[in-house]
Amino acid sequence: MVCVAVGQFSAGTDKDANLTALGALTERAAASGARLIVFPEYSMYATRALDTGILDSAEPIDGPFATKVAELARRYRIRVLYGMNEALPGERRVANTLLAFGPDGEPLARYRKVHLFDAFGFAESDWVTPGEPTQLCTFDLDGLRFGAMTCYDLRFPELARRLTDAGAEALVVPAQWAPGPQKEDHWRLLTRARAVENTAYLLAADQCAPTGAGNSVIVDPMGVPVAGVAEAAGVAVTTLDAERVAAVRRRLPSLRHRRFRITAGDPETAGAAAGTPGNPAPLPDAGGDA
To answer: Fewer CB in a 10 Å sphere around the end CB: N or C, the chain?
Structure first.
C-alpha cells in the first residue's frame, strides 16, 4: 500500500509564487504521510491564454525552477511530479513537459505532452511542440506502477491503454483543465472512465480558478472517487493498494477480454490511403467548437 496526494492550486506568471505554493502543498502532503504528490500541468508558469510569455519563461529540465522542485522533493522526502514549459534549443515552440523527482531529489520521470489542446477555440500547438507518440512515462513506487499523461491526453483512451499495457496500475493526469460549457462534466466523466476501462487508479491534479476548473480527484479502479479537492487550493490524500487493483481485475477481467491492441503512431501517416484499414477516412467537419 502507498499513500499518495494530488495538489491543486492556481499557477500564474510569477514563478517564485508558484514555487511557494508547491512548497506549502508538498509540506502538507508529506506531513500526511504521502510518498508521492501530483501537481497540475503548467505549474511553473501559467496564463488563461498562451502568449509569448510561455516562450520567454521556458526553462530546461535542469533549470532553476526544476532544481528548486528537486530540493523540495529532497527536503520532504517525497516524490514530486509537476508540469512545466520546457525550453527546446533551436525550436520556436516549447514542450509541455511533466517532470518527476524522487525523494533523493534525483530525476524520476519525464513526459512531453502528446495531444495538444487545439479545441474550444484554443490553439496550444501555436506555442507547443507535441511529444513523440511512441514515448511512455512510467515509474514504480511501493509495488505499484504509475503511468503519466497530461490534460487533453485524458480525452484519448489509447494512451491510457498503452500505459496499462506497460504495467501501469495507477494513472496520473496533471492538468490545466479550463472551465467552460460542459468542461467540468467532461472532466468528471473522463477521469472516471479512464479508471474504469483500465481497472486502474487515476490521480488527476487540476489548477483551480482562475486558471483551471479545479475538482482534482483520485479515482479507484472501479471508478469511484475516493478523495478530491473541490474549488480552492488544497491537497487530497489517500492510500492506493495493489491488491485492490488485482482484485478488481480478477472480478472484472476486461483487459484480458480485449480483441484489439493499441499501437503508437500518427494516424495521418499510418496506412496506405484514407479510408483503408488502419487509416480510416476523416470525419466531416461539423463546424464550431467541439
So the answer is: C
